[in-house]
Amino acid sequence: MTLTIGELFDALPERFITEAATGLERTLQWQITDEDPGVWAFEIKDGQGRLIPGGVPEPDTTFTTTSEIWIAVAEGRQDPMRAFMTGKMKVEGDMTLALKVPDLFDTATT
């Protein structure tokens, strides 16, 4: 069973790996652009992660893609670098932070 995009983002705080975020105080944001559009931010502060539905005005890194691509990335079925390199996902802002995202969250299991 595949998660919906909303379920995927609702589960992010539970999948957050606090040890990987030591010393990190940044905000990630996802802009989903297809049939189930939306914006979600994830604030990392003091080793804790907090989901912010609707996003924030100035995230450090923004991922723009479809729900299909992001769910595949989150479930480990799509390589995020390949999605970026083939234009299926756009990344704006702090690229170093973007590269750390796979280490910050456990891959979703279905």
UniProtKB/TrEMBL annotation:
Pfam families reported for this sequence: SCP2 (PF02036)
Residues covered by the SCP2 domain: 19-106
Entries under SUPFAM superfamilies matching the protein: SCP-like
Record InterPro entries: SCP2_sterol-bd_dom, SCP2_sterol-bd_dom_sf
PANTHER family, sorted: SCP2 STEROL-BINDING DOMAIN-CONTAINING PROTEIN 1, STEROL CARRIER PROTEIN 2 SCP-2 FAMILY PROTEIN
Protein name per its UniProtKB record: SCP2 sterol-binding domain-containing protein
Organism expressing this protein natively: Antrihabitans spumae
